[in-house]
UniProtKB/TrEMBL annotation:
It holds the Pfam family MurJ. InterPro entries: Lipid_II_flippase_MurJ/MviN (IPR051050), MurJ (IPR004268). It comes from the Bacteria. This is Lipid II flippase MurJ. Residues 1-50 are annotated as: Disordered. It is a multi-pass membrane protein. Its main location: membrane. PANTHER family: LIPID II FLIPPASE MURJ. Keywords: Cell membrane, Cell shape, Membrane, Peptidoglycan synthesis, Transmembrane, Transmembrane helix. It is found in: Cell membrane. The chain crosses the membrane at residues 56-77, 149-175, 187-205, 212-232, 238-261, 385-405, 425-443, 450-468, 474-497, 518-538, 544-566.
Amino acid sequence: MTRTPDGTEGPQPDTGTSAVTAVPATLEPETGLGPSAAPPAPAGRPPGSAAPASRLLARAALLTACLSVAAALLGLVRDQSLARLFGAGRDTDAFLVAWTVPEFAATLLIEDGLAFALIPAFSAALARRARGVAGDPVRALMAGTLPRLASAFAAAGVLLALAAPWCVAVLAPGLPDPDLAVDCTRLTASCVLSFGLAGYCSAALRAHRRFLAPAAIYIVHNVAIITAMYAFGGRWGVRSAAFGVAAGGCLMVAVQLPSLITELRRDKGGRTRLKGRRTKLGGGRAELRPAAPAPPLDVPLLAAVLLFALCRQSQVLIERFLASGLPAGAISHLNYAQKVAQIPMTLSMMLSTVTFPVVARALADGDTERARGRVERDVAVAARLVLLGAAAVVACAPQLIGLLFQRGAFTAQDTAATAGIMRVYALGLLAQTLTGVLVRSYFSAGRATWYPLSAMAAGIAATWGLGAGTAGSLGAVGIAAANAAGITLTAALLLAGTGRRGVPLRAGAVLRGLGRPLRAAGAATVAGGFAAGAPAAAPAGLAAGAATVTVVFLLLGGAPGARALAPALRPVRSLPQRLAHALSTR
């Protein structure tokens, strides 16, 4: 499972060290919301003084997570609408090949690539503006970067549209109707420009500590796709979904422009203010010292993160390439199974997303013991949450898929095929979650490391080899099994490689801690499967199976104890009060 434009891999506030540590340490707290709004306490400051920043961080991450969950739910509605209107056949296969464009654009232009490059640059420009540097460094930065980037995005989008026939031939050489996929790809090619501009706006706003608009972009994107399918589906067919992707990309930019324009109109004495050091002049006047130049962008770190994201995202390309030679509908079945199966992973990753800045700060302070304890607790809690969800997915797969998708053009045969694939996908959910948690520990130190890329490349090679060897005999189920095996290899390598390359985890202790929840998940899966199959109606079977899985899992000790769970949940306690306060300060 990989990140998608609806954010279903988990809420993705800026998860790089750049986004956490680049905010000047002496910025005064304000009402902006977001993970990168909480700077680490400067050296010499009492630890208790970081409490307001920690509360701001927790509130920001909570709001971002809530909006990300809303976007993920809308993504599920989008997939339900696609299945209902167009089923799981050659039309949806063609659209899902074109869907590769926004998948990659979201990863490279909104989440990882531009965020790691631009947030530190904007943060440094804001610091120079607050110190009284001549001119406006923020506008100068935009004038020097935005026109060039926009031109590059536009040129890449036009090139992709022109090369759509060749792209489709490479991505899915066995597709029955390549012309339809080419039409959809040309429509989604506009996302290179719109997603690039949306990512630029998101980076600028996050550097200004404004996170509500960036967190809402996937919501408007999915709303546009759903609306287009129902409005134009009868006339344009599945091309309406591709048109919705293009229109949604424009809305992603439009929803952020008012906030960005408001921030740019602020003068140098705006609310983002630095407590500058003053020097006495001859007449007793005081003026701010000139700001030190901003540190250069860590290009090796950016390259390492970007290549890791590209390598992980290539799982989608492998699946669709191999499935294109299978009977019509295989790509669609893989897509639907993946989207539902990754929901437990999305929920389990919430905690590590919120606590990631804590790890980054601990490493910045040289406190590797605190960083190790934080990551190990995150692994323990996230693993238990995803194992509970995976057990429910495996036990209740037919009931879950039938309830969500079996209507309209999505038949009972589609339900059976998708449920079988989803059960195999679920075998890799624990490894998907461990990979997401562990890779943060590698990049949280702010140093370039190529080991995560090597681990991911090994997993991708295993996915390709196993998928190519089993697709002919096992079909889409073999491709799903290859995905699970490949990501499991990656997770094992990441766990084994911690130490000098990342946070020095105790791999043996981590693995021993997973023994009990793994046994509990296995027993809960068997019991839940029997319970789900007893009632004839899908809703009743789903309820019975999910309840049984939960009870058995908890009784067998699968849930973390109070001591393990409390620290991980500390940043998100008092959820209603924090959310209400966050919304009231906008």
